[in-house]
Design brief:
It comes from Pseudaminobacter soli. Keywords: Signal. This is Phosphonate ABC transporter substrate-binding protein. InterPro entries: PhnD, Phosphnate-bd. The protein is an alpha/beta fold. The protein folds into 2 domains: about 150 residues, D-Maltodextrin-Binding Protein, domain 2 (3-Layer(aba) Sandwich), CATH 3.40.190.10; about 120 residues, D-Maltodextrin-Binding Protein, domain 2 (3-Layer(aba) Sandwich). It is built from 11 helices and 12 strands. The strands form 2 sheets. Strands 2-1-3-11-4-12 form a 6-stranded mixed beta sheet, sandwiched between helices.
Length: about 300
């Protein structure tokens, strides 16, 4: 082999390696939005990100993709058709168990009391006569979504400890899914379920739906009055879900995105509150290790 060919070969190899090593860049940044809230409200709440992110991270546009359920966002992240989403811990666990390298959990929220967690909360209609968890024996319990942490995974795994080690399927007469947190609470309100599991910060007043979470958002939108409901059960603290970003994206873009989000509570508190659905103080860094207990619970309960 001539020296010229050897040099050209070495150059080609170097260029090839450089291309492989360089993470994926893009012109359109695609945002996945979990199902559970009606689409118009989801798009309205996230529009501030669509307006601000292009200049902040160096892309031409940001597109919002609200899903009808949790799995739509999960599959989009696994398939590379979405670049960022805010997930529940169980949703992240599902992705991790399918492909641990698909996304990176980078941030989570901090509650107003400084905690990095929230609660699964079971509610029933106050006029139903159901006042305690024991009163639900043989009755119909609604879950939010099969991939919801607070709306399914944690209740299924934690409730038996408060039911004298009786499994959920043996204690309740019937269970079902409400099609997201918002629809579930409305189904409880309409009497389709005797009680249902949703989520809240557990901080502040129950009459206000606490300081953040699905109940708080529904109260703020005038969809429910908490005086019509009673709390039957509250779970142990659940790790706040992660902001995840697709691992294959350009390193510089990921760094700019993370910094934008870290700064958001100060640069645009209204936008921060809108996308989070309530009152939080800030974001804080997380790694996969923060979610290992949920990953283990999902693997044991659901198998992925």
């Amino acid at each position: 082999m001539s020296l010229k060919k050897a040099l050209l070969g070495a150059l080609a190899l170097a260029l090839s390696c450089g291309t492989a090593a360089r993470a994926e860049s893009l012109e359109t940044f695609r945002v996945g939005i979990l199902g559970g809230e009606n689409e118009a409200d989801s798009l309205r709440n996230y529009q501030c990100l669509a307006d601000k992110l292009p200049a902040a991270i160096g892309v031409k546009e940001v597109k919002l993709f609200p899903a009808t359920d949790y799995d739509g966002v999960i599959q989009g992240l696994l398939g590379g058709t979405l670049d960022y989403a805010e997930l529940g811990a169980s949703g992240y666990a599902k992705i991790y168990l399918a492909n641990a390298d698909a996304v990176e959990p980078i941030l989570t929220t901090v509650q107003t009391d400084g905690s990095k967690g929230y609660y699964s909360i079971m509610v029933a209609r106050k006029d139903s006569g159901i006042k305690t968890l024991a009163d639900m024996k043989g009755k119909k319990l609604g879950f939010a979504d099969p991939d919801s942490t607070s709306g399914y995974l944690i209740p299924v795994t934690s409730l038996p400890k408060d039911l004298n080690n009786v499994a959920v399927k043996d204690f309740f007469g019937e269970t079902g899914f409400g099609g997201g947190h918002e629809n579930l609470v409305l189904a409880v309100k309409d009497g389709k379920f005797d009680a249902g599991t949703t989520f809240g910060s557990g901080v502040g007043n129950f009459d206000e739906g606490y300081t953040s979470g699905n109940l708080h958002k529904m109260v703020a939108k005038g969809m429910i009055d908490m005086k019509d409901f009673v709390e039957l059960w509250k779970s142990p603290l659940i790790p706040n879900g992660p902001i995840v970003i697709r691992t294959a994206l350009d390193t510089d873009l990921k760094a700019k995105f993370k910094q934008f989000m870290v700064d958001l509570p100060k640069t645009d508190p209204a936008c921060f509150s809108a996308i989070q659905g309530g009152d939080f103080t800030s974001y804080t860094e997380v790694t996969p290790a923060f979610y290992q207990p949920i990953i283990d619970a999902r693997k044991a309960q659901i198998g992925g």
